[in-house]
Amino acid sequence: MPIDHSNAQNIAQVLTEALPYIRRFAGKTIVVKYGGNAMKDDSMIASFARDIALMKLVGMNPVVVHGGGPQIGAHLEKLGKKSEFIEGMRVTDEETMDVVEMMLGGLVNKAVVAALNQQGGRAVGLTGKDGGLIRAKKMLVGGKDIGQVGEIEKIDPRVITHLEAGGFIPVIAPVGAGENGEAFNINADVAAGKIAAVLQAEKVIFLTNAPGVLDKDNKILTGLTVPQVEGLISDGTIYGGMVPKVRYALDAVNSGVKSAHIIDGRVDHSVLLELFTDAGIGTLIRG
Ligand SMILES: Nc1ncnc2c1ncn2[C@@H]1O[C@H](COP(=O)(O)OP(=O)(O)O)[C@@H](O)[C@H]1O
Ligand SMILES: CC(=O)N[C@@H](CCC(=O)OP(=O)(O)O)C(=O)O
Questions:
Q1: Does residue 6 sit within a domain?
Q2: In angstroms, what is the span from residue 245 Cα to ligand 1's centroid?
């Protein structure tokens, strides 16, 4: 039987085209924020995990920061509690904080870790409490105390750099520790932006359930700058959960991260499409 070389040809072509991008990002830290809305079923998580495992395999240093807002909301509902958000931040009483810590540090974190390991990665899950990673204090939202919502006081990235050096993929749940070890609920976009800044990452990529930041006519805004962003927030084009994403994407690039991207995490291989094409996908935010 004749040997069919066509598949090998395809693979060779793809690898050749990928090579300049692999070279560009090899050894670079890339923070990927994995939103709860982009992990709605096992096949979405598996697809995400394949991309991240591949990044590691070709020499990049992916750092995953995940959310889990919808998963927390679903569990609260089972307990008969309604979710309430102010400016994209969950109102977090003591009982809610327990659920947040259980869901983010437990079920959601381990689902992401297991999926990565299933794809041949060596992932290690941690919360901001581990290794003194995230020190937090109460965040006032719109001047109001809305419970255990935390803002980041300090990040000690040593646990991340140690894991990276050992060949592991850090998977971080955004729960911080207060002065007395108490838990704070930190919005995952805030945590990802700040961690990217402290690591001076090459990129921070936010995976969400929209194709990017959309304008009033639902068209993707492919590029955004600082003055545009505040205008779009104040006229209501950017609202709800997109507000912290855009604000902390900007904060990251203003703090030295080369670029921030908001992309559709529901699309297969969205991270690779962003990394391995010149045009990228979704919305690019520059300082
Ligand atoms: N201008 C906008 N473009 C796209 N999405 C927007 C915009 N403004 C608000 N949103 C909302 O923000 C949501 C994404 O934020 P969020 O629900 O917090 O997701 P995630 O779990 O990924 O953090 C979108 O699904 C959409 O409903
Ligand atoms: C303070 C605050 O709002 N914390 C978030 C943390 C999870 C998160 O940010 O999840 P997504 O990225 O999936 O939205 C929450 O409790 O929902």
A1: no
A2: 8
**58-67, 223-232, 235-244: lowest mean pLDDT where?**
223-232
| 178: CATH | 3.40.1160.10
The token pair at 109 is 């974190």
pLDDT at 239: 93
Over residues 129-138, the pLDDT tens digits come to: 999 999 999 9
SS3 (DSSP) at 16: helix
The rounded Å distance from CA 64 to ligand 2 centre is: 15
**pTM given for the model:** 0.95
Tell me the three state secondary structure of residue 94: helix
d(CA 64, CA 49): 10
ipTM value for the complex: 0.97
Instruction: Please report the pLDDT score of residue 279 as a whole number.
Output: 86
Centre a 10 Å sphere on the Cβ of residue 50 and count the other Cβ atoms it contains.
20
147 annotated among ligand-binding-site residues? no
Check whether 90 is labelled as a binding-site residue: yes
The number of distinct structural domains making up the chain is 1
Q: What is the C-alpha separation between 41 and 71, in angstroms, rounded? A: 11
Q: Is 278 helix (H, G, I), strand (E, B) or coil?
A: coil
Residue 51 in any domain: the answer is yes
In this predicted structure, what is the pLDDT of residue 3?
66
pLDDT digits (tens, 9 = 90+) for 36-70: 999 989 999 999 999 999 999 999 999 999 999 99
Beta carbons of 30 and 202 less than 8 angstroms apart: yes
Helix (H, G, I), strand (E, B) or coil at 175: strand
